[in-house]
Amino acid sequence: MELNLNQELIVTCSELSYEGYGLAIYNDQRIFVAGLLVNEQAKIKIVKKVKNVVFAKIINLIKKSELRSDFEFTSNADLIHLKHDEQIKFKLEYFKNLFTRNVSSNFEIEDINFVTSKNIFNYRNKASVFVKIQDEILHYGYMADQSNQFIFQEIDAMFLYADSIKSFLKDFKFNFHKFENKKIFENLNQLIIRTNREDQLHVVLLFNKSFDHNSKELKTFFESINKNITGAFYVIKKSTKSFKLEHHKIFGNENLLVEFANLKFNINVASFMQVNFEIANQIYAHVNQLVSLENYSKILDLYSGAGTIALNLANKNNQVTGVEIIAEAVENAEANAKLNNIKNADFIKTSSSSKSILEILNDHDLLVVDPPRNGLDNELVETISFSKIKSMIYVSCNPRTLIRDLKVLTNKFEIKSVTLFDMFPNTHHFEIVVHLAS
Question: CDD domains, from UniProt (predicted)?
Fold first, then answer.
């Protein structure tokens, strides 16, 4: 019997999916239930169907697992309802199973290490908070899982964000309610906030469409909120699915000064930055340790961004070259090298063509990559496979794309070590560092 939208059922969860959904089977159909744990029974409601994939939400929890924590599931903390030690077990077992099923290697899977985070709350230095304004009252929240429904959320229930971010959100809301010209915020959709260890803030206002604004008035509004705001910007969405990454400055600095592994970095408002300072530092230390095991004379860092990995390696007296396809990222990394007085690192902009990358690869001993969630593109994987490079360190935030790439890379390299890092406690995400050598 076919399942229908809004249909209500009673189901029992048999396992967790990678994304943390509880998987239930009903009349031979798989249902992914947000917030349901293994062996729990619940009354659920179908909220979305995509071909043969069915998603549901819990209406009433009938049988509760002893592994359930005291916190409620949210789409931005999708494992917070599972006790943290059980989260670690789940992530480790998921990765081991994924690795075993897909990668042909002599690597002993039980040798995988998992580095946990001391801080499992208030660790995120970046927040993306949805905004809804009703009757001139500003509300914060998030989008419901598998829907466009806005879920209201109190600031004190935002358990993952740094205290400085939550303090800003309180100040923003307070000042909004006493601000006279609320019309300039009527199309405000989201606040994106980043912070450093000194509680300084970069704030981006994301609007659904063009708006009638006065930059001077916006600047006055922000300056009245919090003295720690070092830069404020706005972005306008171009469609419901995407927005052009063109940041318009309201006031302040383009860069936020942050510290990783005792080095200082100016991070541009549009640049990538690891969201967990504690675990990021442990990853950089681990990569440095792997590099110290061999006498590498020349190291290549692809996807070098602002230079966080490259400069940490160069700081240990290795000659490092960072490669980017974005000119602004190269300029940012070069400025960070000067900021830290590091002279044995250089950064170049090059095309992503296999020929140009192959020439650079063949001139280095070690390759380090830290790509975005979609991993390495197929052409780059093939280029690495045909290159003369002898060793590689792959830093990944997506186990699925990592495993996809390892299936090819292990034809050239042997896996020497695999370490997981709890970069994102209380979510299903984690970071992985793999050391490969031929």
Answer: AdoMet_MTases (cd02440)
